[in-house]
Amino acid sequence: MFKIYNTLNRKIEDFVPLEDGKVKFYSCGPTVYNYVHIGNLRAYIFVDLLKRYLKYRGFNVTHVMNITDVDDKTIRDSQQAGQSLQEFTEFYHQAFLEDLRALNITPPDVEAKATDHIVEMVVLIRVLMEKGFAYESNGSIYFRISSFPGYGKLANLEAQDLKQNSDGRLDVKDEYDKEHIHDFVLWKSWDEGDGKVFWETEIGKGRPGWHIECSAMSMKYLGESLDLHAGGVDLLFPHHTNEIAQSEAATGKPFVKYWAHNAHLMVEGKKMSKSLNNFFTLRDLTAQGMNPLLIKLELMKAHYRQEANFSVAGVEEAKRTVEKFLNLLIDLDAVATEKAGGENVEQLIAATREKFVAAMDDDLNVALGLAVMIEFVNEANKLTKSLSREAAEQIKKFIWEIDAVLGFIQPLYAAYQEKVKAVASDAEVTKMLQDRVRLRSEKNFAAADALRDQLLIKGIVVNDTADGWSVRLRNVV
Ligand SMILES: [Zn+2]
User: Fold this and answer.
1) Residues 413 and 440 in one domain
2) If you measure from the C-alpha of residue 168 to the centroid of ligand 1, how many angstroms do you get, rounded to a whole number?
């Protein structure tokens, strides 16, 4: 049975969704005012791994993610850029989607933009006001945390721990309008700084606060109680804490059964910080020639609740791991003849699957899951010389089965095949290969070997086979 650490109860629990076989899953998406950095990407990769594994375990997952396209930062930066809020945020929204594609992260079933759901937020805020959980002050509306017992339970906070404005999203001027310093804004009345960004609604002219969007949109698409809510640990307080308060105050029902949070990311052993200028984006790293899927493996390989470290050396190590998988797949493709061998393959696959599932069932222990798969590749390599075509196909099929969870092997393999195809259709290379065959048939082996060496310099390895030749590339990644 799949077990997961539930932040709400601070322990690893059996994962039993509210409705048998179905998982209502919400994760917090980006604020689209800039490119996301690799610390954010770690969270999206974790969410995707979790989703992929739940699907692998047979759950029917519905995943909803928000896009925050209105807040202080998007308004401020769109004004500085001289663009409309919509034009400005859509640019970074598209850039975010490009990053997800490059990392082979599966898109959510529903992607919800905050600005498309103002009506739902207004309805929710009105309910909170009617029930006495929210109040209006100078045109803005605030959540009254003293009215909600258990506020801060998720973050394990006592009232005295609650820090003012810990996420920096509130204007200092708001503080004077609130009954209590910890109350947070649900609806922000328009002021001149907002420029053209406002909505005229029954609760006034203004715009929503950040936290209310996730409550309104998650409940719209998934219902009042969700199974699973995930995100980076930096969202635990105040964002997720406030989501719980808003949602449960409005519905009187538990909002989320399981909360899952991934730990922080370090870069080259150091905390990410403005002064170190190490908030790398995917674009920064790919511009240095790094393959996004190797970056993905580097960001995924540590247990999600452990602080991870991103390093150039780690990306190099990821490359060596990927090479092992790809070299095996390429060798398996080269198994052409019918041989009797491979009786052990089924056993090896069954034993590996069992170990992989045991690792991942244990709170998504991907570090162990990866180790299990690398061990499998090593074992399978020993068998490739004596495999039947059928056994080779079984091994490949199993790798694809597991890669439905890991999500980095298939696109790299496809990219390799594309490169081989390009090489094979290159006129100069084709001529060299044909010349080499002719030279060999003329028993001019010295000249044939010289051609082989020239091809090797181009990164092309030629193997002679029973029915001609096969080529592979020296650099598989
Ligand atoms: Zn959220």
Assistant:
1) no
2) 16
- Say if strands 22-27 and 308-310 run parallel, antiparallel, or are unpaired: unpaired
If one counts the domains in the chain, the total is 3
Distance CA 50, CA 300 (A): 11
Mean pLDDT of 267-283: 93
Residues 252 and 370 in one domain: no
C-alpha 221 to ligand 1 mean position (Å): 14
Residue 310 lies in domain: 282-417
Residue 400 lies in a domain: yes
The residues whose Cβ lies within 5 A of ligand 1, an ion, are: 28, 214
Q: What pLDDT, in 10s, does the model give residues 231-262?
A: 999 999 999 999 999 999 999 999 999 999 99
- CATH number of the domain enclosing 397: 1.10.730
Residues with Cβ within 8 Å of residue 449, at least 6 apart in sequence: none
427-441 and 409-424 helices, crossing angle to 10°: 70
Rg (CA), the chain: 27
Q: What is the ipTM of this complex?
A: 0.98
Q: How far, in Å, from the CA of 67 to the mean position of ligand 1?
A: 9
